[in-house]
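2024-03-11 09:14:02 INFO worker-7 job=invfold-0412 stage=load source=structure_tokens
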């Protein structure tokens, strides 16, 4: 871990332009509330989504966004008929997103898309020196060192929105980075916590999509059930905070009230806690290093009579150790693991792969992929493609 603060500090002044990517997903929904409540602090430069046109338009009207982007051309064509004079300008395709990222009016890119497909926009934001409020963990998993190098070159700030990493960033305000002994990431344990391994064989799509504490998109919900989400978060933390994987620990905390912890060299452990609500890390990432007042319900610790912490069951949920393995190997390993998991989860949701088949498919791709220690973007995209094909063939 370096001695530099991972998050440079300078106060914001005046309303800042925010571009919201993934505006109709679960992060987009939480971000919509935050942006509407703080119109005095942030103006919206654009909203982008893949294909939910009507919802995107409704949100853009409410936020006075000048531009909307649909990356799916058919969805954009269907939306055109709904537009009336005074509506935001509709643009189409991935390049339109990149143009908005680079637009001088955009100071903050709130990256709320899911999957490695979010990487080009994240990288463009960092190359343009913007603040990247990052909910798309795959960007860091696939290309952490590249994003760090570019951010150091341009002065871009990468501020985590993932709740665990936001918690770590907040705890790091309580000590120097050089004084950190360990990061302790919490995990809900998912809907199958405590299940014996053989009971997982018959798990269905609906079983896996019922997350106990967070309401999220389908891929991350399945990833939470396999613990692959935590595996990816270990890799994300490794690059985001420049910390060796051996100093990252995972503890299962089913109540999801303690969002993560930092242990310092003197034995002090700082924890960030609060009700599970993605608006909190979004608010923090947008306003950082300040805190914005919120209408959030008061946190009553007495509502949580019992908080429990336990070691993860690494034998029943082998995906977790794949995250540590990929974090230790670095290079293209994160890209290989993530792409295999994206494909395997898709196949599981289609009914083509059993729940217990997801981790083995990912392990094979991680270990067999053409590894490179110091990859550039095209190496990473090539491995992503290789791993997807490999996983699809294996399913
Ligand atoms: Mg998380």
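2024-03-11 09:14:09 INFO worker-7 stage=emit residues=395
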């Amino acid at each position: 871990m370096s001695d530099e603060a991972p998050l440079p500090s300078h106060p914001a002044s005046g309303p800042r332009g925010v571009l919201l990517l993934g505006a109709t997903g679960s992060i987009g929904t939480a971000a919509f509330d935050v942006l509407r409540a703080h119109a005095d602090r942030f103006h919206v430069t654009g909203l982008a989504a893949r294909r939910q046109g009507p919802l995107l338009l409704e949100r853009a009207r409410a936020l006075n966004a000048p531009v909307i982007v649909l990356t799916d051309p058919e969805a954009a064509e269907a939306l055109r008929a709904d537009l009336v004079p005074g509506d935001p300008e509709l643009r189409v395709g991935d390049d339109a997103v990149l143009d908005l990222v680079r637009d001088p009016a955009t100071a903050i890119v709130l990256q709320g898309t899911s999957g490695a497909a979010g990487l080009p926009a994240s990288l463009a934001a960092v190359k343009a020196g913007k603040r990247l409020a990052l909910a798309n963990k795959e960007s860091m998993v696939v290309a952490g060192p590249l994003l760090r190098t570019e951010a150091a070159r341009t002065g871009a700030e990468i501020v985590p929105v993932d709740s665990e990493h936001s918690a770590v960033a907040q705890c790091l305000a309580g000590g120097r980075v050089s004084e950190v002994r360990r990061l302790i990431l919490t995990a809900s344990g998912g809907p199958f916590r405590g299940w014996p391994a053989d009971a997982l064989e018959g798990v269905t799509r609906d079983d896996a999509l019922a997350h106990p504490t967070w309401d999220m998109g389908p891929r991350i919900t399945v990833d939470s059930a396999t613990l692959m989400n935590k595996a990816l978060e270990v890799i994300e933390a490794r690059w985001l905070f420049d910390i060796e994987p051996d100093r990252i620990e995972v503890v299962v905390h089913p109540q999801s009230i303690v969002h993560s912890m930092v242990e310092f060299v003197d034995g002090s452990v700082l924890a960030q806690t609060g009700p599970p609500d993605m608006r909190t890390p979004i608010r923090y990432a947008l306003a950082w290093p300040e805190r914005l007042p919120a209408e959030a319900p008061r946190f009553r610790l007495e509502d949580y009579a019992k908080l429990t912490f336990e070691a993860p069951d690494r034998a029943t949920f082998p995906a977790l150790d794949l995250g540590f393995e990929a974090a230790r190997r670095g290079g293209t390993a994160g890209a290989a693991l993530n792409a295999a998991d994206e494909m395997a989860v898709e196949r599981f949701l289609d009914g083509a792969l059993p729940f217990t088949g997801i981790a083995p498919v990912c392990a094979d791709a991680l270990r067999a992929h053409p590894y490179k220690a110091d990859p550039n973007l095209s190496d990473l995209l090539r491995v992503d493609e290789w791993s997807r094909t490999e996983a699809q063939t294996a399913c």
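2024-03-11 09:14:09 INFO worker-7 stage=report msg="The pocket of magnesium ion is lined by residues 162-164, 233 (CB under 6 Å)."
2024-03-11 09:14:10 INFO worker-7 job finished
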